[in-house]
Write a structure and sequence with these properties.
By secondary structure, the chain is α/β, with parallel strands linked by helices. The protein is about 35% helix and about 15% strand.
């Protein structure tokens, strides 16, 4: 059954949680957005080795639960591994959650939570 239009009609932005190279590339492609003041929330989070897991989890929660203008959340797979318990339990249709590779960390389909769910649906 398809979701009603009210579930997705205002969702017009991508959100990115990734390393500096991935986020920079996507920002150069034009996905960057900052909400109006006074809160001025960005739709991206640059994660480096100093970024705490709680910060990543807070951004994930903000993008998936609080912001109703986000249609797709892109997250580097090696960063998703840091909050794997959150990523694996996320089941909402909107925003869609996609794990992407980074320059230094190749994509591993065995870790992808969406691909695991698809395989279960098809009985693999």
């Amino acid at each position: 059954m398809a979701a009603p239009p009210s579930a997705y009609k205002d969702r017009q932005f991508l959100a990115v949680i990734g390393d500096e190279d991935s986020v920079t590339g996507l920002l150069l492609a034009g996905v960057g957005h900052v909400t109006d003041p006074p809160d001025s929330q960005r739709n991206f989070l640059v994660v480096d080795q100093k970024t705490e897991n709680s910060t990543i989890e807070a951004a994930f929660d903000r993008f998936t639960q609080e912001r109703k203008d986000i249609a797709i959340v892109l997250i580097n797979q090696h960063i998703a591994d840091k909050i794997r318990h959150r990523v694996d339990t996320y089941t909402a249709a909107f925003p869609a959650l996609l794990e992407i590779p980074s320059k230094d960390h190749p994509y591993d389909p065995e870790k992808d939570s969406v691909l695991k769910r698809v395989r279960r649906l098809f009985g693999e």
